[in-house]
Amino acid sequence: MTHAQVEEMAAQVQTIADEHHLTDDASTEPEDERRLGKREDHDTLPDEIKAKYVENLSLLQRMRELHLRLRSLSLENATCPDSERYPFLKELISLDKKLHTNWEAYDRYVIGQSDEGKSRKAARATPKKKPRNS
């Protein structure tokens, strides 16, 4: 990895942090108060789809932890600051991709659908749900 590539990753992580409000006060609220984006028909969904919603809560928590560790890194005396930041940047970006994949599957699932490979044909069929911050 070059310095420029790590800086590009850092910029991407900053965008992710802003998008998911990783530094907002909301990140310290109890999880039940943060549960946004839940479909009105959530309780009727199959367990594997409900699990994606629950997993996303854990992913966001891990992303907050990683972002906090990134911000608290002391790089002044590090021989190679980029190598110190890289593992955190890489994991945070990976978690963000997983989070978006889960939301996509959760949001697009149609009840009565036989497998996850099928997708919703029209966006207008999206069930009403509370807005979410991710």
How many distinct helices?
4
Shape: elongated
Major β-sheet, in short?
A: none
Can you count the beta strands?
Answer: 0
Q: What is the mean pLDDT?
A: 80
Low-confidence stretches: 30-35, 115-126
What report would you give on this structure?
The chain contains 4 helices and no strands. Helix content is 56%, strand content 0%. 19% of the residues are buried. It has helices spanning 3-19, 31-34, 47-72, 81-108. The longest helix is centred in the C-terminal third of the chain and has 28 residues, at 81-108. Residues 30-35 and 115-126 have low confidence and may be disordered. By secondary structure, the protein is mostly helical. Helix 1 packs across helix 4 and helix 3 (47-72) packs antiparallel against helix 4.
Short characterization:
By secondary structure, the protein is mainly α. It has four helices and no strands.
Q: Characteristics of this structure?
A:
4 helices, mainly alpha, 134 residues, elongated
Layout of SSEs?
Layout: H1 3-19, H2 31-34, H3 47-72, H4 81-108
Helix pairs in contact: 1-4, 3-4
